[in-house]
Design a protein that fits this description.
CATH class of the largest domain: Alpha Beta
CATH architecture of the largest domain: 2-Layer Sandwich
Number of strands: 12
Shape: elongated
Strand content: 25-35%
Helix content: 40-55%
Number of domains: 2
CATH topology of the largest domain: Transcription Regulator spoIIAA
């Protein structure tokens, strides 16, 4: 059974799952609610409450769940799941990385925390003009797709003023991406601007940061160098050197 507790125009689509969820539950309750919410707000943030009496999905319900996700792949901003059922929490965490939007789990009774998470800032991008056509881009926290949408305009303005530029990519406080949607926005940004970069320095302290530098070197095809976190000033000096 699925019971929807919110209206299409509400900021969060909230629903409770209990007992056995059937194909009819999806087609008569959840799918119309999701589509109405997306029609009203373009994107939807979900809060699913799964009670202790939840017994599972029928095959038809699972098929409808997949179809719903694929049909509205880009229609979800964030999703929170509140439950005390351990296998659901574990499965949600395991599959979160493959979702197009940030996904988080909470215990029953933590619904207010979930609502706050659905709207809090997960991460940010700081851009600083270093002069002489050099740009310091600092990735902080866990980024979602909205962050890239906000920052692209500033980056485009910098590029219009400089034609070509040097990039200092600061990963020291970066914790990764929230979902495939954010990762897709990152690669889209790289695709649209990499041909304008003359030189790039990567600064970080994780093994995958060094790997990102190697990948970046192949994509950008200009001098790209990795610096450990404690050598930030050295990275800046290398980037600005003639």
């Amino acid at each position: 059974m699925i019971e929807v507790h919110s209206k299409p125009e509400d900021a969060i689509l909230e629903f409770t799952v209990s007992g056995t969820v059937t194909e009819a539950d999806y087609r008569e309750t959840l799918i119309p609610a999701v589509e109405a919410a997306i029609a009203a707000r373009d994107h939807v943030r979900l809060l699913a409450r799964i009670g202790p009496d939840f017994e599972g999905f029928t095959l038809g319900a699972m098929a409808d769940d997949v179809r719903l996700g694929l049909k509205h792949w880009n229609g979800f901003d964030r999703a929170a799941v509140a439950t005390d059922i351990s296998w659901i929490r574990n499965a949600t965490k395991a599959f979160a990385v493959f979702m197009p939007c940030p996904v988080a789990t909470f215990a029953l009774g933590e619904e207010n925390d979930a609502r706050r998470w659905l709207f809090e800032s997960l991460g940010t991008i700081h851009q600083t003009d270093l002069g002489n056509g050099a740009l310091h881009v600092q990735l902080i926290g866990q980024l979602d797709a909205e962050v890239y949408a906000r920052e692209t305009e500033d980056l485009d303005a910098f590029i219009r003023a400089n034609d070509r530029f040097r990039l200092l990519l600061d990963l020291r406080e970066f914790d990764g991406w929230q979902g495939l949607g954010a990762l897709g926005e990152h690669f889209r940004l790289v695709r649209d601007h990499h041909s304008l970069i003359d030189r790039a320095a990567f600064v970080g302290d994780k093994a995958w940061h060094r790997m990102a530098q190697r990948v970046g070197r192949r994509i950008i095809k200009v001098p790209v160098h990795y610096f450990p976190a404690e050598e930030f000033e050295g990275a800046k000096a290398w980037l600005l050197a003639e």
